[in-house]
Protein: AraC family transcriptional regulator
Organism: Streptomyces hygroscopicus
Amino acid sequence: MPKTRHTSTAPSDPEAPLLRGSAWWLPHGYQLDPHSHVQGQLVYAAAGTLATVTERGTWVAPANRVTWTPPRFAHSHRFYGRTDVRLIAVPLDLCGELVGHPSVFAVSPLLREALLALTDKPERRSGAHRRLLTVVVDELADAAEQSLHLPEPRDDRLRAATALLHEDPARPATLAELGRVVGASERTLSRLFHTELSMSFHRWRTTLRIHHALAHLTDGLSVTETAVACGWSNPSSFIDAFTEVIGQTPGRYQADLRGDGK
């Protein structure tokens, strides 16, 4: 994964942008260290890709999704590709309309325009910002979660197994092979994936690979190179998996990053 880099155009204090809707261009690999906010926070990458990390795991949002973090929920951010990031504070009295945990939602055309307006345009009439933000919250309250969430385990054996995959997402090991390394049976690990992470081993590893694929595609690797680097046996199976999770093909995702996908 890219290393942290800083730029003078980025916010030096992660709380500062939440005083109002703000827009920042952040460089590839930029990272905001763990912090929390008194208010809720919406983060939208109008271009590029955003990863939000909490003690519960990692959420990834490409440019067709928006990230929600509730008040006082410790989190950090990583940005992949030159990212047009929009930060929007959600007052406490509106936060109760949204889920009480970090999540990612699909961005409809209406929602995209509202998020851009909140961060691009100064408030010309008193209360206009609040009224538009209420529309955004209403849209999100009715939207289904589309979280690219990679939960983190608590059990030591499961943590050891997932750590091996974090180190090498392309690792072709079966659950039984991972079990032999960490000292747990295939059945035990399978049960732990379901009980602790609420997903199968296959689903968790696919999500992990998609996280890395988004970073590789943003970094300019081809679809074929990304498929190989992330452990898919052929580009077609990678394209199918990516499209199912992200909602667009990897080629379209890269075209949108370049600005020629419209």
User: Anything to note?
Assistant: Residues 59 and 149 are 4 Å apart (CA to CA). The two ends are 28 Å apart (CA to CA).
